[in-house]
Amino acid sequence: MFRFSSYRLALAVDSPNEWELIRVNETTLELVMPAGHTLFARRVGEGSPVLLLHGFPLDSRIWQNQWSTLAQQGYDVVVPDLPGFGHSTSMLGTDISLDDWAEDLETLRRFCFGDQSIAMVGLSMGGYVALAYWKRWAQHLHQLVLTNTKPSVDAPAAQQARWNMAEQVQNSTTWEAVAPMLPRLVCAHTREQSESTVHWLQSMMAAVAPGTIATAQRAMARREDFTERLAKIGVPTLVVTGDQDPLSTPPENQQWSQRLTRGQFHIIPQAGHLPMLENPDSFNQVLVHFLNQHPSH
Ligand code: MLT
User: Fold this and answer.
1) Interatomic CA distance for residues 201 and 92, integer angstroms
2) pTM over 0.85
């Protein structure tokens, strides 16, 4: 069930400099951000607040096997399309950073949840954004889930590959630029057993505008290193990856998760970089178990 109280609507009208609500139906909302672009989000359920952040080059639909399950378990689930992805429009400018996206998420949190803290779940690029959010708004988090991601920056060659893609995509289709990523996103089992899932993923990737690909790659290339700050994360933090993820491997994840003061680590079987899609039952079990351990007050 998706409900907006009149209080929330009044805030939207009375504080136009902060945000403006332009569209809302039972399960979606769209906010005009102070910078002028729009942020689209899905919302389902009632209860403890959870925000799910997608990876690159994807959108909020990557969480389609999670939002109903979480709603049934008593969570108020908000799933944004990050700027430029899905139904959200792009931020203007060539030097957009992950901090700018984190700022949008804080606006979204305030709009949806007021004073309440949230559990933030970030997939890969969404994990980088979650760490950028934690840097500034740790007081609004009561749990963190970092799935198939890393706190470190790229090695020089990987960083250069991002700058190259940001250039290349200006003169090609998105699909030409991102197609080489596909085999690294899903494991062999998923590719062999779930052809329709792979086609669906392909169409989601191809639908991202070239300008958004370039913006996101530049922002990720410039992201900060959080490795040395992991011990300062005070909230319970779940680290998850797929047993066959070549981009965020189990040994790497296990190693950095040990730096967390209140960390837990889980490996999802028969999954690559997208366990929420490839093995949703196992992923949901681990996620719900973790969220249920530390409900918000
Ligand atoms: C993602 O899934 O979001 C990407 O693999 C992130 C990245 O390119 O580092």
Assistant:
1) 27
2) yes
